[in-house]
Amino acid sequence: MTFTLRALLVAASATRVLASCAHGTFLRPRAEEGGAVQVGTFGYIGTIGPLNWAALETPANNACATGTRQSPIDMVEGVFTVLQGSDVQLTVNDMPAGAEFENLGTTVEIITQGGTLNVADKQFELQQFHFHLPSEHLDNGTSQAMEMHMVFQSAAQEIAVVGAYINIADAAPAAATKKRSSRINNNNRRQEAAAPPAAAAITPTTLLETIFSVVDQIATPGTKVTTPPLVMSEVVDLLKANAFQIYAGSLTTPPCSEGVSWHVSTARLGVTPASFTKVRDVIGFNARYPQNTPGQPNLLMISALGSAAAAVADAAAAAA
Ligand SMILES: *[C@@H]1O[C@H](CO)[C@@H](O)[C@H](O)[C@H]1NC(C)=O
Ligand SMILES: [Zn+2]
What we know:
Elements: H1 2-14, H2 53-56, H3 63-66, E1 74-75, E2 81-84, E3 89-92, E4 100-103, E5 108-111, E6 115-119, E7 122-132, E8 138-139, E9 146-154, E10 159-168, H4 174-187, H5 189-194, H6 206-212, E11 224-226, H7 233-241, E12 243-250, E13 258-271, H8 273-283, H9 299-319
Parallel strand pairs: 1-8, 10-13
Antiparallel strand pairs: 2-12, 3-6, 4-5, 4-11, 5-7, 6-7, 7-9, 9-10, 12-13
Bound molecules: 2-acetamido-2-deoxy-beta-D-glucopyranose (NAG) and zinc ion.
The site of zinc ion has 5 residues, from strand 7.
């Protein structure tokens, strides 16, 4: 038992964590252009999962276990401030020749070709965007099908992330839905009037459909493919037309560094059920569990106290 634990710790400390939310930033520089895709060695399940990230590389990953402003969080009223999308300067260059799309083992990521975020008198440059499945942030207690993270870095090496929830698009084509609801209106207008306003239909986002059309070609970690041409204005315009929920948090992957400026959009991107299944079969599962309210103790510190108390109680019971 002791030997096993020691062997595990030695193996863990030798581990180099290469891929993360911070891939392409100063924290995790990318390999040289054209180089091999570097696959991450942390994970989401078992002893390489988020309960044990700090032990995988100490002291580099200590914030994962001790930080008090960790991400993701449940986006409930009171933990964020709201900034209108129209007040944020956001540009993302189109990629007319396609983009490099990599499987890092821990996520699938698009290497971008320029983009800026200007907020609070700071300028950030877009490095990449990648996907989590299911969503990492919770929208007022509710997880979403997926979440996209656009990672920006400033000249002073500060990090800002724009997060956008991705929902599964409504299965019924818009025309069929319209026809059905007009029939309901004719048959029962009173019931229709009493019903709460329907949530806006989720339509597939062309950018995501284009990207995920080739995700099956990078099913193996460490592989990459060039996407078809990518037009970014669709998503940028949608983000600007909605609002951002802003809070100061962390990277959601090792080394869990804090001081990350989060901008979680109230917009909804969409994927077709077929694309969702395709990307799910490649990603599997890559969401860190929701962290404590910003400013409150790290859940792992609270958990350690609970475990110690339970062990003392077990020992006392065994001695009795
Ligand atoms: C968030 O959820 C709570 C509890 O379910 C609910 O009372 C509240 O209205 C929700 N807030 C928003 C903004 O939807
Ligand atoms: Zn991420």
